[in-house]
TrEMBL record:
Keyword ATP-binding tagged: no
Organism: Mycobacterium cookii
Source species, domain of life: Bacteria
Protein name as annotated: Isoprenylcysteine carboxyl methyltransferase
GO cellular component: membrane
Subcellular location: Membrane
Membrane topology: Multi-pass membrane protein
């Protein structure tokens, strides 16, 4: 269980790093005339992702979930792959990447990296991680609840993002 707590802590630290990167990118985007869209759903997104990490640990501890190697190791591999995809997205978008939806009017739409393959690859990483991270230690309730709430939230987020990106060339 200790190693799972360390994994959750590592993901939490990674999230804090993302927030710092996002804030730097927000400042750059705003200085170039960036406009934020859909800020109303942002607090719910932050809360949901925080509850995911807490839920992973709470369910594993309180409900005495066991590590099942046949499930846990493949899920761990998916978590690692999701992190790699997320950072590929971040590096591909550069200062245009953010945890918020901020668009610089007239900026070119990014079509390289993972964006040449699918329109919203970061959300693929979020979906994969949200399902796999709890299942590393058999926290299936957290995986199901997060995935359902995340699907609802992402339906809003993708609409907001598509509307915001429609003006880019």
């Amino acid at each position: 269980m200790t190693w799972y707590a360390l994994l959750i802590a590592a993901v939490a630290i990674e999230r804090l790093i993302e927030v710092r990167v996002a804030e730097r990118h927000r400042v750059v985007s705003k200085s170039h005339g960036g406009v934020e869209f859909g800020s109303g759903h942002y607090p719910a997104m932050v809360l949901l992702h925080t509850v995911l990490l807490v839920g992973c640990l709470a369910e594993s501890i309180l409900l005495h979930r066991n590590f099942i190697p046949a499930l846990g190791w493949p899920m761990f591999a998916i978590v690692v792959a999701a992190q790699a995809l997320r950072w590929w997205c971040i590096t591909t978008l550069g200062y245009q990447w953010n945890t918020r939806v901020i668009v610089i009017p007239g900026a070119p739409r990014v079509t390289g990296g993972p964006y040449r393959l699918i329109p919203h690859p970061n959300y693929v990483a979020v979906i994969a991680e949200g399902l796999a991270l709890p299942l590393v230690h058999s926290a299936w309730i957290t995986a199901v609840v997060f995935s359902a709430l995340n699907a609802w939230l992402l339906s809003t987020r993708v609409k907001v993002e598509n509307t915001a990106l429609a003006g880019l060339t």
